[in-house]
Amino acid sequence: MRFASSLMILAALLLGVAVGLGAYTFAYAKGYAYLTNDPQACTNCHVMQSQYDGWMKSSHHSAATCNDCHTPHNIIGKYAVKANDGFWHSLYFTTGHYPDVIEITKFNRKVTEGACRRCHENITAEIAGNPVHGGAAGLQCIRCHSSVGHS
Fold this sequence. Notes:
Blueprint: H1 2-28, H2 49-57, H3 66-70, H4 75-95, H5 106-119, H6 121-128, H7 141-144
Helix pairs in contact: 5-6
């Protein structure tokens, strides 16, 4: 009985430390900024500065923010992707295990492709039926237009 009681106290203590550390890290790293639509939130992590600078010079600067291209356009999908990406970004940044050249993941490439097609639906519908593009089977916008959002 005493052993079980001690284990419960230890578990509560560990949980309290984990929650406290998580809350402190979230506040210190300005994690709340990622809940906004402000592109400068992406520069909280210094490795994203070149992507932000590229977006500032891009053709999409006046038309789209990071969330418009890098998150789904429904509230649940948007915050699910933000939570997933935020976790991995903070883990990689905290541990220092991130590549010198930031690359989009396969999953996030699909999200971005969906955003291209959603915003440019009138154009992509025409391309899909155009034999020059092979009926667009497997065609990805960002294959040819990779520098549109980050020149």
